[in-house]
Amino acid sequence: MKTLKICLISVLLAACKEPAEKLPVYNSPDFTPVWGNSMAAQHYIADFEFIDQNEEGYGTNELEGKIHVMNCFFTACPSLCPTLMGNLMEVQNSFKGDPEVQMISLSVTPERDSISRLISYAELNGIRSSNWHLLTGDKKLIYQTARQSYFVDENIGTELNENDFLHTENVILVDQNLQIRGIYNGSLPLEIEQLIEDIKTLKKEL
Prior knowledge:
With 206 residues, the chain is α/β, with parallel strands linked by helices.
């Protein structure tokens, strides 16, 4: 009888436990969090494909079914980008050899960032192409993808195009279904630490 009581108590405790930690979904540029089974219109990263430092096409076809981290940069950036990309090395190192986690960095000066420059930049900064892809391509499409799909720009509600320079420390976390699950200030180490923890949370959804 005592054993039966212990078993019943264990079952009740398990049933009363809080649900596993989950991250919200973000469907709009103002990053209002959406929790649970909301009826809000869902936002997904639109199809794209650019060229990475391996001279290979890389985009949503390769990212679907995987967690990925997105940011913007340019190889000649003297201030923000070195800090941002340096902090993102922690993400790369935390998920070394994990094919379920990918990183993409979109060049906002693709007319200058040729494949050869991306190769040199990757080698200089220890970027491994197995899970971190530096992407270049058509400037208009890159800016459209960054602003309309990833909501990466801070200028919410402002009509912008590729002639309006895109320079931001925002880092975006996207899940296996190509939905946005987090935004972080990539210049702050504490935010990168939170990003790493949130990736681990998303991995439990696989």
